[in-house]
C-alpha cells in the first residue's frame, strides 16, 4: 500500500503535517521560501502586530546544554554536550504590517500549494485594540494567507491586555477569537499559553469564540540559570533579566501533558502540537494523542535556521512508520491519529498489585 503523508487540517490540504512554528525561522519571506523548498508542509509566520516593537539590547535567544554523566546545565558552549532547551525573550515581529503584506502575497504566489498561516496579535483593552485584530486579519487574508493563528500566548508582554495575559483570561479569549471570526474568511487557530492551571478552560473559551483549532504549547515561563562564576544570569542586560520562554527538548513531556488534557476534553476538535519536537518519534507522541499537525521551532533554529535536516527526518520518519505498520491497514496519519488519547487516565485507574486497592486517597 502506498503511504500518503498529506493531511487535511481545519479544511486545509497540507502535503505533510509538519509546520515551522511562529518564530525566527519564519521571520522573513526569504526564510519562509527556503523552508518551503526544504519540504515543510506549512509555516506559521512570526507574529505580526500593529503596536511598536523594540527588542532588548542584547541576544534574544540562547540555548542551554546538558553535560552527560553530570547534572551540569549551562548556555556556555562546551564540547560533548546535548541540547536541553532554548530560552528567549524575543518579542513579536519588529517588521510592520506594511512590510509583511507584499511578502505574504509574493510567498503565496510562488508556493500556492504550501500553507501559509499568519500569526497575528493585538491588544484587547479597548474597541480600537479589538479592531486591530480585524485590521490584521483582513490585510493578511486579502494577500492570500491560508489561516490565522491568534497569538494569545506570548509569555513576555508587560501589557495586561496582550499575549499570554489574554490567554489567561477566558472572557478575553472568547472576545478576541469572536472578533477575528467576524471578519475571517479562512480558518482561525488559537495558540494558547501553557502557563495556566487549566488549559481546558481556555480552550473551551476559544471554541466558544469560534476557533477552528488550538495550537499548544508556546514557550513555558522561565528564567535563564545563574552562572556559578559571575553570579549573573546567563542571559541578561546590565545584569537584569525578566521572565522569558523555555522551548526545546525540556518542554516536550510538559507540552504533551497539556495536549493530552486538550485532546481528551475535545476529542472531535483540531489540535496542532508544539513543543520539543526534533524528530519523528517526538511528533508521533502528539499524533497519538490526537493532533492533526505539529509545529517546530527550537530544533529548526539550530539547523540552518529553517530546519532542512529536521523536516527531511520528520518526513522520512512518518513514511517509514507508515510502511512498518502497513499490515495494520495504516497508510496515512488519520489511520493512527488519537490511538493513545484515552490511555491517559486518573491515577486511581492505574492497576495496583492484586492484593492492594487504591481509591484515589479515599477510604474504600
Ligand atoms: C526565539 C523565539 C521566538 C518566538 N517567537 C514567537 C512568536 O513571535 N509568536 C509565537 O506565537 N510564538 C513564538 N515562539 C514560540 C514558538 O513558536 C514555539 O511555540 C515554542 O518555541 C515551542 O516550540 P519548540 O519547543 O519547538 O521551540 C518563539 C520561540 C522562540 C524560541
Ligand inventory: flavin mononucleotide
Biggest sheet details? 8 strands, parallel, barrel
**Overall strand count:** 16
Radius of gyration: 21 Å
Distance between the termini: 52 Å
Structural class: alpha/beta
Approximately how much beta-strand content do the residues carry?
A: 15-25%
Tell me the number of helical segments per DSSP (H or I, 4 or more residues long).
10
Helicity level: 25-40%
- Could you report the average pLDDT, rounded to the nearest whole number? 96
Described by the principal axes of the CA atoms, the overall outline is globular
CATH superfamily: Aldolase class I
> What pattern of helices and strands is seen along the backbone?
EEEHEEEEEHEHEHHEHEEEHEHEHH
What does this structure look like?
With 364 residues, the protein is α/β, with parallel strands linked by helices. It has one domain: Aldolase class I (TIM Barrel, Alpha-Beta Barrel), CATH 3.20.20.70. It is 31% helix and 18% strand. The protein has helices at 29-38, 97-110, 127-142, 164-167, 170-183, 199-208, 252-265, 280-289, 298-301, 308-324, and strands at residues 7-9, 12-14, 18-20, 42-44, 48-49, 61-66, 73-74, 82-88, 115-121, 147-151, 188-191, 213-216, 220-222, 244-247, 270-274, 293-296. Strands 3-4-9-10-11-12-15-16 form an eight-stranded parallel barrel, surrounded by eight helices. A five-stranded antiparallel beta sheet has the order 7-6-8-14-13, with no helix packed on it. Strands 1-2 form a two-stranded antiparallel sheet. Helix 3 packs across helix 5 (170-183), helix 7 runs parallel beside helix 8 (280-289) and helix 8 (280-289) packs across helix 10. Bound molecules: flavin mononucleotide. The site of flavin mononucleotide has 28 residues, from strand 8 and helix 9.
Amino acid at each position: 500500500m502506498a503511504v500518503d503523508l498529506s493531511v487535511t487540517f481545519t479544511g486545509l490540504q497540507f502535503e505533510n503535517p509538519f509546520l515551522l512554528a511562529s518564530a525566527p525561522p519564519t521571520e522573513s519571506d526569504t526564510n519562509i521560501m527556503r523552508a518551503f523548498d526544504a519540504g515543510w508542509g506549512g509555516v506559521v509566520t512570526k507574529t505580526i502586530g500593529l503596536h511598536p516593537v523594540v527588542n532588548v539590547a542584547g541576544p534574544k535567544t540562547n540555548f542551554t546544554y546538558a553535560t552527560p554523566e553530570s547534572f551540569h546545565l549551562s548556555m556556555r558552549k562546551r564540547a560533548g554536550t546535548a541540547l536541553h532547551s532554548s530560552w528567549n525573550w524575543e518579542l513579536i515581529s519588529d517588521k510592520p504590517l506594511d512590510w509583511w503584506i507584499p511578502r505574504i502575497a509574493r510567498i503565496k504566489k510562488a508556493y500556492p500549494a504550501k500553507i501559509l498561516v499568519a500569526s497575528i496579535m493585538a491588544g484587547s483593552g479597548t474597541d480600537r485594540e479589538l479592531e486591530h485584530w480585524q485590521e490584521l486579519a483582513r490585510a493578511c487574508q486579502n494577500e492570500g494567507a491560508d489561516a490565522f493563528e491568534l497569538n494569545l500566548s506570548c509569555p513576555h508582554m508587560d501589557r495586561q491586555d496582550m499575549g499570554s495575559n489574554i490567554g489567561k483570561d477566558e472572557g478575553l479569549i472568547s472576545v478576541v477569537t469572536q472578533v477575528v471570526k467576524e471578519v475571517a474568511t479562512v480558518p482561525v487557530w488559537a495558540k494558547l499559553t501553557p502557563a495556566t492551571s487549566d488549559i481546558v478552560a481556555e480552550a473551551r473559551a476559544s471554541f466558544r469564540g469560534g476557533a477552528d483549532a488550538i495550537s499548544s504549547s508556546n514557550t513555558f515561563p522561565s528564567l535563564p540559570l545563574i552562572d556559578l562564576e559571575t553570579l549573573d544570569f546567563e542571559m541578561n542586560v546590565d545584569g537584569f533579566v525578566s521572565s522569558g520562554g523555555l522551548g526545546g527538548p525540556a518542554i516536550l513531556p510538559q507540552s504533551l501533558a497539556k495536549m493530552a488534557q486538550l485532546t481528551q476534553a475535545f476529542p472531535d476538535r483540531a489540535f496542532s502540537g508544539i513543543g520539543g519536537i526534533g524528530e519523528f518519534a517526538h511528533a508521533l507522541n502528539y499524533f497519538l494523542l490526537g493532533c492533526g499537525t505539529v509545529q517546530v521551532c527550537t530544533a529548526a533554529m539550530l539547523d540552518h535556521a529553517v530546519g532542512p535536516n529536521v523536516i527531511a527526518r520528520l518526513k522520512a520518519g512518518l513514511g517509514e512508520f507508515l510502511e512498518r505498520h502497513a499490515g495494520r491497514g495504516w497508510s496515512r496519519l488519520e489511520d493512527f491519529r488519537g490511538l493513545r488519547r484515552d490511555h491517559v487516565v486518573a491515577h486511581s485507574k492505574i492497576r495496583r498489585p492484586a492484593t492492594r486497592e487504591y481509591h484515589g486517597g479515599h477510604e474504600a
